[in-house]
Each structure stands twice: as C-alpha cells, then as structure tokens.
Write a structure and sequence with these properties.
This is Methionine aminopeptidase 2. 34% of the residues lie in helices and 22% in strands. By secondary structure, it is α+β, with helices and mostly antiparallel strands. The protein is globular.
C-alpha cells in the first residue's frame, strides 16, 4: 500500500467512526430494520479493532496537506503549561474557562490557524533534521524547507503559506540570511547551522528555530541556547516583566562554556537580538523579549502570543549588519510616498499582492518571474516603503546558535504551540 493509499484508508476509517459516534449520540435516529441492523452490527464489530482515531500519515518528503491529515479540522494542541504564582487560579477559574471558550470560537482570535501552522512546522522540520548533511548547498536546504512548507500548509495566496524566508545561518551569522540566486555556499562538516522556519495560516505566523552541528566541538553551545530558550518559555506568563525574563534567560545561557582546541570560551547571550510578540501578518509585533536583563518593566499580557528565541555566541555577544541583503518586508506604517519610477510602482503591486506585510526574499521574487528588480527594490527601501534586513554577524571565527518556540498566553494556560518531540 502506498503512503497516499494508506492516508486515504485512515481518513475513511475516521469518517466511519465519526458516523458511528453521531448515531450513538443521537437517540432520535431512525431505527434500523433487521437487515440494516445486522449490517451495522457487522460493521461495528470490524471497527472494534480500531483502538483510537489517528491522523493520516505524512509522506517523506512531507507533501500531505495538514487539512488532509486532520480532516475534522481539529489540530493537535501544543504543550500546555499551567500558570504559577498569582496566576495559578486561572487553570480552574470558571470565568477564565468561559473566556477561553469564547476566544476559541471567535474567528478573529481562534487558535486553530496557529495550531495548523504548528503541525506543518513539525512535519517539515523533523524531516529536514533527518535529511540535512554536510556537502549540501544552503540553497538546496532552504528549498527543501520551503517545498515542504508550501505542501504541508497548502499554500494559498495570503491565506496560507511561508511566513518568512527560511533562515539558513551558519557559524558567526546568527540571523537574516537566506541564499540569493546563484549562491554556491556549501554546508561543511564543522559548520554550526541555524534553521529558522516561519509558516502562517490566515496571517497567524508560527515562528520556530533550531540549530544543527555535525561534530561535537560546539555541543555545549547548542545545549546552552536550548536550555536558555526553555527557561524563557517556562518563565513567560501573564504579568511577567520582560526585562526580568531576559535576566532569567541570560543567567541560564551564560552558565555554559565551550572548549575549542584547549581554549575555553564563555557562551554569551547576543544582547542586541531578542524574541518578540507576533501580530497578524506581521512577524515582529510591538513588544520585544530581551535575552539579557535590560530593565524593561513592560509586562506580558493575556491573549498575546510570542516568539521566545534566544541566541548564544562564543564571540562578543553582539551582532552587526554584514553582507548582501536577502530579507525584506513591506513597512505597514509607511507614509504615502509618490514613486517616481514605473518599475518601483509595479514591484510594489507585486509585493502587496503576494506578501502583504509578510517578509520576503529575492528568491521569492525570482520564483514569481520578476527580473531586473534590484533598482526598483532599492527605490522602495530608500522611500521607506520596504525595510531591508541584512544578515547579522558576530565577529569572524565565532560560532552562534539559536533555538525558538512560539507560545500562546491563553486565559487558562500557557501553550507552547510549536513544541515537538525533537525540541
């Protein structure tokens, strides 16, 4: 049986079980005659072998859409963590439970979209982690991620698709790099690779990242950053002050050190990178989650959702713009500026139609058939309509790592929506 046939069979079994449940729970259903009852009894007997409903399997590489894997439209809930301290009452509060129910049913605040994106993220990233090997080009890796993303989330214009360009950042480059056309960079055995993947459904962006290495020298660097991210996730919550949370993250991160050929390097939190709230169709919302204690008294609030991401480095713990830009995003608050060239006007229409305020990269413009657009793109940047995001590097020779989760501050519990068996 092929993967597709197996998937169809499981979906059929789910539908049969749902029909039986409906009949069982509906006492007003029309009674069956003798022959019909016998058939139904036989059918139920055969179905007794099925212990529970299961999702349709994913293919390899991942190409089965999440709505086909979960045809009932109910997607897995992420890891739920109870609030602690003054907020511990929320778990059992009748008022908060009712608010949770209303929030879930409101199409403007539903959790279903972000959970669908999260399930696509898990399917794609787990395949990618098994598949990436030294010797692959960074372009090959980015396209592997994006092909899986588009298939699993069932890309449909601005309704669902890639949330931002896939980050494939190696060594001292911490963020904001994805290959442009013609990039020939090859992943090496000694490289430390950060993969940052964004997937959205109706503008609800799931943002999660991980780091891979292929020999053990920098194991402690990866462990430090993963532990710091988990500390940030654990410490986050309603009414938590962002600066204090950054201090908790920093304390965990900087308790680690890395030995490289007999030289010991302390792991440093990259102080000018941070996590952030996520808004609809906008990856960076209005609040930042520092990874050092910067004294910010701003509090997290009920109903917000955050990307908790941390970056560690064996260098100076500070990044700066370096290299050719690949990442761009439409500025949501850009003032109306008259554009002088027709090429800039035409490119802006393409950006608005295909990306809106979602980040994009030059490869995505190439994919749409755009050519000779660099001058027009630079005009949009100069006008403040589009913002460019160059690659961010620590000092040459250093190594950086990143881990990241998306969390929802629900009324009753905190949900780590991107949590998986991998990290």
């Amino acid at each position: 049986m092929t993967g597709e046939e197996e998937s169809k069979k499981i979906i059929e079994n789910q539908e049969e079980e749902e029909e039986e449940e409906e009949e069982t729970n509906n006492p007003a259903a029309t009674p069956l005659d003798g022959e019909g009852a016998a058939k139904k009894k036989k059918k139920k007997k055969n179905n007794n072998k099925k212990k529970k409903k299961t999702a349709a399997p994913q293919s390899e590489p991942p190409r089965v859409g999440i709505t086909k894997r979960f045809p009932n439209g109910i997607y897995p809930v992420g890891e739920e963590q109870e609030y602690v301290g003054e907020n511990s009452y929320r778990t059992t509060s009748a008022e908060k439970r009712e608010l949770e129910r209303l929030t879930h049913e409101d199409p403007e605040t539903t959790y279903s979209d972000i959970r669908r994106a999260a399930e696509a993220h898990r399917d794609v990233r787990q395949y990618v982690q098994r598949s990436i090997k030294p010797g692959m080009s960074l372009t090959e890796i980015a396209e592997m991620v994006e092909d899986g993303t588009r298939a699993c989330v069932e890309e449909d214009g601005l309704s669902s698709g890639v949330g931002f360009p896939t980050g494939v950042n190696i060594n001292d480059c911490a963020a904001h790099f994805t290959p442009n056309a013609g990039d020939k960079t090859i992943l090496g055995q000694n490289d430390v690779l950060k993969i940052d993947i964004g997937i959205h459904v109706n503008g609800r962006i799931l943002d999660s990242a991980f780091t891979l290495n292929f020999e053990p020298t920098y194991n402690n660097l990866l462990e430090a950053v993963k532990a710091a991210t988990n500390a940030g996730v654990k410490g986050a919550g309603i009414d938590v002050r962002l600066g204090e949370l950054g201090g908790e993250i920093q304390e965990v991160m900087e308790s680690y050190e890395v030995d490289v050929n007999g030289t010991t390097y302390p792991v440093k939190a990259i102080r000018n990178l941070c996590g952030h709230t996520i808004d609809k169709y906008k990856i960076h919302g209005g609040k930042s989650v520092p990874i050092v204690n910067n004294g910010d008294p701003t509090k997290m609030e009920e109903g917000e959702y955050y990307a908790i991401e941390t970056f560690g480095s064996t260098g100076r713990g500070y990044v700066s713009d370096q290299g050719v830009c690949s990442h761009y995003a439409r500025n949501k608050d850009a003032p109306h500026v008259p554009l002088r060239t027709q090429s800039a006007k035409s490119l802006l229409k393409v950006i608005d139609k295909n990306f809106g305020t979602l980040p994009f990269c030059r490869r995505y413009l190439d994919r749409l058939g755009e050519s000779r657009y660099l001058l027009a793109l630079n005009n949009l940047v100069d006008a403040g309509i589009v913002t460019d995001y160059p690659p961010l590097h620590d000092i040459k020779g250093s190594m950086t790592a990143q881990f990241e989760h998306t969390i929802l501050l629900r009324p009753t519990v905190k949900e780590v929506v991107s949590r998986g068996s991998d990290y």
